[in-house]
Amino acid sequence: MSIQIVRPARSVQGSLVVPGDKSISHRYAMLAGLAEGTSRLSNFSTGADPHSTLGCMAALGATVTKTGEGRAQVIEVLGVAGEFKEPAAALDCGNSGSTMRMLSGLIASHPHTFTLVGDHSLTLRPMERIRKPLSAMGVKMELVEGHAPITIQGSELTAIDFDTPIPSAQVKTAVLFAGLQATGTTSLTESVRTRDHSEHALKAFGAVLKRDGERLSIAGGQKLKAIDATVPGDISSAAFFLCAALLFPDSNLVLDSLGMNPTRTALLDVLTLLGAKFRVLTVEEHHGEMIGTLQVNVAQGGLKGADISGALTAQLIDELPVLAAIAPYTRDGIRIRDAQELRVKESDRIALVVKNLKAMGAEVTEYEDGMDIPGGQTLKGGVIDSGTDHRIAMAFAIAALRAEGETEIHGAEAAAISFPEFFAYLDELCVR
Ligand code: S3P
Question: Which long-range contacts (CB under 8 A, 24 or more apart) does 201-206 make?
Fold first, then answer.
């Protein structure tokens, strides 16, 4: 387990291109794997999770080739033209809940036996949420007490009309991917509108998808065609640098090629409430996704406070750890509710955020579905336990920037799950 030392900073200055969005990379990799022809994917996520997805696509018969290095790297995926082969071994989803859940929907109609496995953290995550709709469509799917390993006996699927009981883009995607290959038209209604990358990606690969109010429909039996695409920068990775910049009145940060899909920008709304000033310098659209250049400064008087609950919580679920990590430095504090889903992410993120805030000397009250973090606090450098969770490791590196003294992040290597370059970029942009 690696330890990263983070020293306090005076401001955050410069410009940054964050690696490709993790959510979009997963979807492009999966649909490219199923499609006919060769897809060329630029700015693909450098995180380990989407590479687990690419590994699964190769095991299912797609040909995955990487050309070029660094930012010039292109991932080429020659798809199976609608027919996955039976993998020789279990499909290894690594640490990635997105891979396991969305892939289950993608492969369910193929006439093979599949086993999906993952690391210890993934084996603790709830999978019943995908078993329910997929078994209603006709697939035989076995879990071990609601968890991975998953065994799927693929078979012909029948369309369903499904209301998602919890806000989850992964569950929505599993149903849409299965619906694409089912008999009949599958419909799905979400209680809270979640990230819509799957809808855009399906359309980019040539599928027809309809939205009527909150109801999405997809006809089965549609074929996909390969695409050339550039993955927008990951706003959930950018979130760490946005929050870092806001800790200092003199910061000036520009983010280039950033994904600004409106179903992912709830963070920007909350940061605006807190006192951030954003300027969108450019914006354009690729395959339905918005990509732009964003400049951020903090308003005079520093950060205020915020209450985060209901649909807003669901829409910025991945950004809550870093918002909690900067909360003690705000004037009025941050209160988070309706976030029980945080307990079943890569770690119990409520418990770990509370534990690590306390390790830095912060006052915080834990609730089953959230926490209250008072503002106006001074934190001390401490020893942080990432719990092998990438977002916890990165969130507390940001808290460390305004603490007194150095902070040790234990299990810092977890950052590589979504953002391997994180600590190097942090060093580059922090003025000390
Ligand atoms: C994701 C959806 C969210 C999010 C995860 C990525 C996606 O999970 O937390 O990091 O790519 O669809 P849930 O669907 O479990 O809410």
Answer: 201/24, 201/27, 201/28, 201/31, 201/287, 201/288, 202/31, 202/176, 203/287, 203/288, 204/31, 204/229, 204/287, 204/288, 205/31, 205/32, 205/35, 206/35
